[in-house]
Amino acid sequence: MIDQTRQAAALTAIETALGSAAVDTNPQSLARYAIPGAQPSGIVLPADEGQLAKVLEAATGAGGTVQSVCNGANGHERVSEDGVIVIDLQRMNKVLEVNGELATCLVEPGVTFRELDAHIKDNNLNLWVDYAGSPDESVAGSFIKRRPGFTPYSDHFLMQCGLEVMLADGKVVRTGMGAMPKSTCWQLFKFGYGPWVDGLFSQSDFGVVTKVGMWMMPQPPAHKTFMVSVPNEDDIAPLYDVLGPLKLNMAVANGVAVSNALHEAALLGKRRRDFDGRGPMKTSAIKAAGEDLGIGHWNLYGALYGLPENVSILWDMVRDAFSSIPGARVSDQRGGVNPDLWNWRMGTMTGQVADASGRLSDWSGNQAFAVNPVTPVGGEEIAQLNEMSRGICADNGFDFLSQGTAIWRSVDHRQILPFNSANSDSAARAKSCAEALIAAQAENGFGQVATDPGLGGVVSGTLEKGGHSTLHERVKSALDPNSLFASV
User: Fold this and answer.
1) 341 class by beta-carbon count within 10 Å (0-12 exposed, 13-18 middle, 19+ buried)
2) Beta partners for 24?
3) Beta strand 222-230 pairing with 401-406
4) Can you tell me whether residue 215 is helix, strand or coil?
5) What phi, psi does 402 have (nearest 5°)?
6) 162-180 pLDDT per residue, tens
7) 166 vs 172: CA distance, rounded Å
8) Are residues 201 and 284 in the same domain?
């Protein structure tokens, strides 16, 4: 538990170092970063690395505990412990470089996908931005959280190249080729000389990322987006069985999203009209929700890229493969699909940065926990995961809102549990359901690729030695001996 006396002393020390205007303790501001049972004691917004170093020095001297977030301006990042001091890097938001010829960028942590996209458009560069769903999420944050997008560059962790990190003692280090002062390849060659350490700063409490380099996707000569809808819950197995070989052989190269009808309804800003706080929707109501949008129970969004003739050949192969599923509808045209859904989904696969119509959490609340299991790209495993997870959600009174993103040989699933943050019972039920999902999934061999604040301890408990290996403990001890940075 964080010592609040030390936290107060740390906030005072930070105010002394940067001025009172640098610290925000307004209750409305604090609430943006809060989760059920945890709220920050203060927020600090450094404008540059010099101010950030002063914040870390002041907090260390007072024995405080801090948590950095890349950009909390739009409510995408929240605290992991009650009373922590948030260091929000949203003011460090410079697009430092975009190389149109070599298709790379270097950005500060506060830069959002929307801001990067605007920079590219302003400079008439033929590059696509791959984002995980919200244009206002941080580019650096997507690497840190390992959040996937929907183009062939969907694996943001893989596409990262070169970091700058500030350690607890204020020392700034650059990884990869950035360790050489005159390097010309910091954003081109990932590894440099010696051990590759970039991954230590993703989903970690070892330091603060102050710059991140990313590879970007050049606009291809041709592309074709498509959608596959299947009518029944059980059709998820054959859908993924067809997709698996296409992904393995890179015929369908993008981050393929597969979502159920309720997920898409929530994505469009629909709310569950008959929601009374408990009880999942009936099968007939789920079917009606899908039909209202012109979609199936499960809906796959894929894209093909390359030379025009190659795209044409791939499309014939992909269309025939998915058409082998009884009842499947395979189309590269919108047809009767809701236009807002079609346009946004197709845009995510072609570098178009735009807002979806709604927020998933608004389906039956105003906040949400997300559970993030990973599976092979295989129908049997995914059918097992979904049947188990749907049952646990129903037992806890929740609808099953689910999306999977197939990247290489695995699928990152995201199961959404909306709740009302003003209702302690609603929040407690959502957290309890999330914990039950995580435990049951681990018991069946499905680990978590990421976790929401407040659930890290549960996920760690599913791993060997509580999720903290001897190596991680030694690295933490070496880089942050005073435990300045809160566990994530």
Assistant:
1) buried
2) 43
3) unpaired
4) strand
5) -140, 140
6) 999 999 999 999 999 999 9
7) 4
8) no
- Work out the average pLDDT over 319-335: 98
Give the 3-state secondary structure percentages of the chain, helix then strand then coil, rounded to 5.
40, 20, 40
- Asked whether residue 408 is assigned to any structural domain, the reply reads yes
CA dist., res. 286 & res. 232, Å (int): 10
The strand pair at 217-218 and 298-306 is best described as unpaired
CB distance 361 to 416 below 8 Å: yes
What residue numbers bound the domain in which 279 lies?
A: 222-452
Contacts 24+ apart (CB under 8 A), 421-430: 421/34, 421/36, 421/365, 421/366, 421/367, 422/366, 424/36, 426/277, 426/365, 427/36, 427/37, 427/367, 428/36, 429/396, 429/397, 429/398, 430/36, 430/365, 430/368, 430/369, 430/398
Q: Are the beta carbons of 165 and 468 closer than 8 angstroms? A: no
Dig out the tokens for 365 from the structure: 């609340």
Polymer length of the chain? 488
Q: Where are the alpha helices (DSSP H) in 123-178?
A: 139-145, 156-159
Q: Residue 470: what pLDDT?
A: 75
* Neighbour count for residue 245 (Cβ, 10 Å): 12
Which domain-ending residue is among 37, 57, 88? 88
The pLDDT tens digits for 71-104 are 998 777 999 999 999 999 999 999 999 999 999 9
Which tens digits make up the pLDDT trace of 224-255? 999 999 999 999 999 999 999 999 999 999 99
Q: Is the pLDDT at 275 greater than 70, yes or no?
A: no
At residue 438, what are phi and psi to the nearest 5 degrees? -60, -45
pTM of this structure: 0.95
Per DSSP, helices labelled H in 324-460 are 339-348, 379-395, 424-443, 456-460
Report d(CA 264, CA 279) in Å as an integer. 19
Q: Number of structural domains, the chain?
A: 3
Residues 6+ apart with CB under 8 A from 343: none
Q: pLDDT tens digit string along 427-467? A: 999 999 999 999 999 999 999 999 999 999 899 889 876 55
Report DSSP letters for 394-426, one per residue: HHTT---EEEEEE-SSEEEEEEEEEE-TT-HHH
| Residue reference for tokens 């209750």 | 27
Contact 180, 162 (CB under 8 A): no
In a domain, 84, yes or no: yes
Which 3 state secondary structure label does DSSP give 223?
strand
The residue out of 88, 113, 130 marking a domain boundary is: 88
What is the average pLDDT across 295-305? 98
**160 within some domain:** yes
Domain co-membership, 207 together with 226: no
The amino acid that residue 57 corresponds to is E
